[in-house]
Description:
Elements: H1 3-26, E1 51-55, E2 58-63, E3 66-69, H2 72-78, E4 104-111, H3 114-126, E5 131-138, E6 141-151, H4 154-168, E7 173-176
Antiparallel strand pairs: 1-2, 2-3, 4-6, 4-7, 5-6
Amino acid sequence: MNIKTKQRIVGALVIVATIAIFLPLVFHAKLPGEKALEFSTNIPSPPVEPTYTASSEGVQFRFDNTNESVPPKLAAMVNPKKNQLTTQQKLKPAITIDTPPTAWVVKVATFANQSNVDELVLKLRNQGFDAYEKGTTKNNQNYIQVFVGPEIRKEKAVQIQKTMLANYKLKGVVVNYQV
């Protein structure tokens, strides 16, 4: 068969298939029992802003011309006169620009040999500890220190220190974390 003839036959089949698919969609009439789709939304009206007044009985809220009294416990939380903090009770921020956050680490060991460091760090990481190493120099000698942490709470770092002593016989020292 000729190539042009094959192409014409395939083209005719594509056109017939397209007509067979889209022709019913174009001339589709509703069936007798078929219902039309109805789309509706149930969006509630926006809330009414309450107005409130403080009195000796508590805080009074007003919503749409209704007057509802607030229970005393809630009134104590809402009433600004009864719920003010004194200057001694006011909270100071723990972290300011002048005081960066403090974290704690456990200095587990110090080695001169890198293979010992790699072995200990791998062992601690396999046990679920966040172990890392950091190089240091003392008396013109290079050393590598192994740390576990950091932890935000010092109590958690002390607990890790006790775990190191009990499980690995390592006498760690809790120190401030330095980046």
